[in-house]
Write a structure and sequence with these properties.
Layout: H1 8-29, H2 35-54, H3 61-65, E1 68-72, H4 80-100, H5 102-112, E2 114-118
Antiparallel strand pairs: 1-2
């Protein structure tokens, strides 16, 4: 049995904290290049960081703040490919879940074949 699923607000909060932290880091490192390229570099670093952080039962900074963990349907740690699908899917499905409601959140779980659960 899976623990309680993480709420959309906590998932967006974790995503925002990770993206903000990486965005500030990349912008400080590459302050002299145009903002579009900084944003693009931040997005690429964000995808790599969150995927690596989720794989094999680890957490990103934002997930640790909101006590979230990415697990499969069997409550096992997500592997690298599922973590990558979850990370890419979150960038599109989480904003849609606030517009369309819970249905988009369920679609994200089906797309990535893993869940965000809240640790207690």
């Amino acid at each position: 049995m899976l623990p309680e699923e993480g709420s959309r607000v906590s998932m967006v909060g974790a995503l925002f904290l990770d993206f903000l932290g990486l965005g500030l880091t990349v912008s400080f490192l590459f302050w002299a290049i145009p903002a579009f390229f900084v944003l693009l570099a931040t997005l690429v670093v964000h995808l790599i960081y969150r995927t690596w952080a989720r794989a094999q039962g680890r957490q990103s900074f934002g997930q640790s703040v909101f006590h979230l963990l990415t697990v499969t349907r069997d409550a096992a740690p997500a592997d690298f490919s599922r973590a990558l699908r979850r990370t890419v899917g979150e960038l599109f499905w989480l904003p849609l879940s606030f517009v369309l409601g819970v249905k988009a959140g369920r679609e994200l779980n089906g797309f990535s074949d893993c869940y965000e659960v809240r640790l207690v």
